[in-house]
Amino acid sequence: MTDRPNILFALADDWSYGHAAAYGCSWVHMPAFDRVASEGLLFDHAYTPNAKCAPSRAAVLTGRNSWQLKEAGNHGGFFPPEFKTFPAALAEHGYHCGLTEKGWAPGIALTAAGEHRPLIGRSYDEQKLEPPTPDICPNDYAANFADFLDDNPDGKPWFFWYGCIEPHRAYTYGSGAKLGGKSIDDIDHVPGIWPDNDEVRNDLLDYAFEAEHFDAHLGRMLAELERRGEMKNTIVVVTSDNGMPFPRAKGQEYEISNHLPLAIRWPAGISDPGRTITDFVSFIDFAPTLLAAAGINWNDTGMATTPGRSLFDCFEGEDTSSRDHVLIGKERHDVGRPFDAGYPIRGLREGDWLYLHNFEPDRWPAGNPETGYLNCDGSPTKTAILQSREDPKQAHYWQNAFGKRPATELYHIASDPDCLTNLADHSQHTDRREAMHARLFASLAAQNDPRLTNGPQIDEYPPAIEKWRGFYEKHQRGAAFAPEWAHPSDFQTTEGK
Fold it and tell me: Cβ(149)–Cβ(127) under 8 Å?
């Protein structure tokens, strides 16, 4: 065993905050996550800067916000060679690095010479299993983790990225009830942004069933570490890349979009385990934290500067009251607007409040209606919302999910976690709105956000999108076409199942 810690970074795909017993949830069973939280730290305010797969993962890997990453800040683009990742830095400093299944995706990462560029390490994907449903990945994640460990005969410290696809869509409708033994009556709260009916509740149960698949493999990985005697010297990080794949969640910038579960276990480095951290942390904090844990100075990595901060103060139980906010935002996610334009947003989550600035409020926030609102995965819940549009009593569901939005939004999260009541134009909140706007834009200016300096002339239609336009056109025509680095449901447009 080496003195430098091993690192297991477990990343679920589209798993939302609150959905584990550690957070008080009774209908999503995540015993492995709960164990990591009870034996380490449970984070109550962890946020991704950008609630979509590729830009969120890019922030994790680089310690930079998406507006600092050029095309890597978008969904389905290119990862510029100039941005180095922290696993690459770990490898250069003697770590054995690898991953299973989904790393940074969907997108293309090439070297300056145009060759394939691994951002995390070697892929371990040979071990397969019979999945419980046709829509669950056949990767035996835990067995591939064991292969990775076996492939480290020199006893180097190691970093492993567990890139589970679940609970990403598609789902097998009814699997949560039929295979997971769940009942729609188990769900104690359906967010007010969706209709509360049997279809939506079954969709939630199917989501829970797939989240539990992620957790089951995590449990097997923890057992493997115990069998090998490596639990004490291993940092285990468990989180998700963005919120659940439901309307107004994944792909947007609301509380349900960016607020994510997080637990970290490190017996050698965390004092007084079992604590809950209520301070705000951002995904840009992972890279500086894990490099510091490995004893690597950021200035010795060749990585671009980071606005992220080490979480060692949280590990050591120090007063962290300065962690009082996070920045969030996005440029372009999926195509689906004229000229494949994005829907640029920047936001500030501070205290009990969320402030959002929508730069192009004349655009459709989830994609244009004629293309099927492509920044929202197809699902029974999406179908239910689209079908309810003509009912005056339910039309607000469509408006919240797909309708156009004002330039500014302000929500009191403590009393309105579903972000249903926009307080931006309420006179009693004018001072707060203006103060949050000023803090947001001052922070963005300090990070050289091109949206502020270039304004409408920002390059939001980069050449990379040409590679993707054909993909979507073929997909909409029903052609079978999926690059090896993408999961087909990343681009699902069909409504329902």
Answer: no
* Cα–Cα dist 306/287, whole Å: 9
pTM over 0.85: yes
Q: 489 and 170 in contact (C-beta within 8 Å)?
A: yes
Contact 126, 144 (CB under 8 A): yes
Return d(Cα 109, Cα 483) in angstroms, integer: 13
Residue spans per domain, the chain: 6-326, 327-491
DSSP reduced 3-state for 484: coil
Per-residue pLDDT tens digits of the chain, which is 497 residues long: 358 999 999 999 999 999 999 999 999 999 999 999 999 999 999 999 999 999 999 999 999 999 999 989 998 888 999 999 999 999 999 999 999 999 999 988 988 888 889 999 999 999 999 999 999 999 999 999 999 999 998 889 999 999 999 999 999 999 999 999 999 999 999 999 999 999 999 999 999 999 999 999 999 999 999 999 999 999 999 999 999 999 999 999 999 999 999 999 999 999 999 999 999 999 999 999 999 999 999 999 999 999 999 999 999 987 666 789 999 999 988 777 887 789 999 999 999 999 999 999 999 999 999 989 999 999 999 999 999 888 999 999 999 999 999 999 999 999 999 999 999 999 999 999 999 999 999 999 999 999 998 765 555 555 444 555 554 444 333 323 223 223 333 333 333 22
Cβ-Cβ contacts under 8 Å for 233 (sequence gap 6 or more) = 1, 2, 3, 5, 6, 267, 268
Fold of 6-326: Alkaline Phosphatase, subunit A (3.40.720)
Peptide bond into 106 cis (omega under 30): yes
User: Which alpha helices (DSSP H) does 270-394 contain, by range?
Assistant: 286-293, 312-315, 380-387
CB contact at 8 A, 24 and 251: no
Q: Which amino acid is at 494?
A: T
Q: Kind and range of the H or E element at 257?
A: helix 255-258
Distance CA 22, CA 38 (A): 8
Cα 85-87-93 angle, rounded to 5 deg: 110
Q: Which residues contact 466 (CB under 8 A, 6 or more apart)?
A: none
Closest by CA position to 421, among listed 396, 402, 398, 441: 396
Instruction: Match 């690192």 to its residue by tokens.
Output: 7
With residue 211 as reference, give the H or E element that holds it.
helix 198-227
Cα–Cα distance measured from residue 133 to residue 169, given in angstroms and rounded to the nearest whole number: 12
Residue with tokens 């279809």: 199
Contacts of 401 (CB under 8 A, 6+ apart): 193, 247, 248, 366, 373, 376, 382, 385
